[in-house]
Amino acid sequence: IQYMSLSSHFTSEKCQGMGAEFFNGQPVSELISQLLRAEPYPNSRYGAQCGQQLAGGNSSVMGIDNICELAARLLFSTIEWVRNIPYFPDLPVSEQVALLRLSWSELFILNAAQSALPLHTAPLLAAAGFHSSPMPADRVVSFMDQVRVFQDQVDKLTRLQVDSAEYSCLKAIALFSPGES
């Protein structure tokens, strides 16, 4: 498939000589500059909106509508990003869809961490409707495990203090190297 060669091209171009552009005072390659320019929103946009929503409400727990809206925005920002990165728009639509299907969960986690969303287990569990529509015990356990894994991955990325250029590179690697993450 054509995207395998793109992964190799991305890696080799990233490792070649540095371009004249700078990020945080450091020179970056043209490819990294293009990845950064493709970012649809500033890093703090979602975190700031979420904070405003929590501050405006009577509760410290986000409602399911807010969580679903933020998740949808993350997914839409991923689509906007891939439409603007080098090489992806040149692929046949069937390969674009295949790449997104194989990498959406990694891209979602990276975008959630990059956006500094205050997603914590308690609001997610509350939003899942455990109080209003109980789930079978095995489904609750599975859901809680998935939420925990998601939160752990986001927390690890946050602790690493990954910058925008690094997030852009990680997302490109996740997109163009499906199944190798």
Automatic annotation (TrEMBL):
Residues 27-181 form the NR LBD domain. Keywords: DNA-binding, Metal-binding, Nucleus, Receptor, Transcription, Transcription regulation, Zinc, Zinc-finger. It comes from the Eukaryota. Coiled coil: none annotated. PROSITE patterns: NR_LBD (PS51843). PANTHER family: NUCLEAR HORMONE RECEPTOR. This is Nuclear receptor subfamily 2, group F, member 6b. It comes from Sinocyclocheilus grahami.
